[in-house]
């Protein structure tokens, strides 16, 4: 299985940088000796993962999605869900259009619709931010959530994240 993880957000705006943060942590894991076939964790075996920091413009990476032809695309972004800071949820595609998801240019629901044309398994994971002011650092809860999410993705345990209730 091929899985492409796209981190979305602005690293200069506090918790909005959680998508790129998760990609960085995931790439650290994927490039470590534990990621080699000899040290691969059982849950992650058989899955080829790529992780890309898309910044605020995931639409600029649609050709990369086509090129890699993944079985699954995982989008990671800060999302206002009305939960405590650092809470993670899988956001159903129909909810992405009505939520405040990050600060990027194109509505994420439109990007998801486009990507689904050539990759039917698209998963949007939102992490509840605390603050997204210019120059702010990510809060401890969001950093910890980013670390947990990177681990879950690397170990093939994305299904352990709760679905955002309607």
Counting structural domains, the number is 1
- Global shape: globular
Tell me the series of helices and strands, N- to C-terminal.
Answer: EHEHEEHEHEH
Number of strands: 6
Number of helices: 5
CATH class: Alpha Beta
Q: What is the name of the CATH architecture?
A: 3-Layer(aba) Sandwich
Radius of gyration: 15 Å
**Can you identify the CATH superfamily?**
HybD-like
Chain-averaged pLDDT: 86
The end-to-end distance, rounded to whole angstroms, is: 30 Å
CATH topology descriptor: Rossmann fold
Low-confidence stretches: 35-44
Judged by helices, strands and strand pairing, the structural class is alpha/beta
Q: Give the biggest beta sheet.
A: 6 strands, mixed
Helix content: 25-40%
- Beta-strand percentage? 15-25%
Description:
The structure is a single chain. By secondary structure, this protein is an alpha/beta fold. It has a single domain (2-160), classed as Rossmann fold, CATH 3.40.50. It is built from 5 helices and 6 strands; from the N terminus they run βαβαββαβαβα. Strand 1, helix 1 and strand 2 form a beta-alpha-beta unit. Helix 1 packs across helix 5 (140-154). The chain is globular, with a radius of gyration of 15 Å.
Key structural traits:
166 residues; 6-stranded mixed sheet; single chain; alpha/beta; Rossmann fold; 6 strands; 5 helices
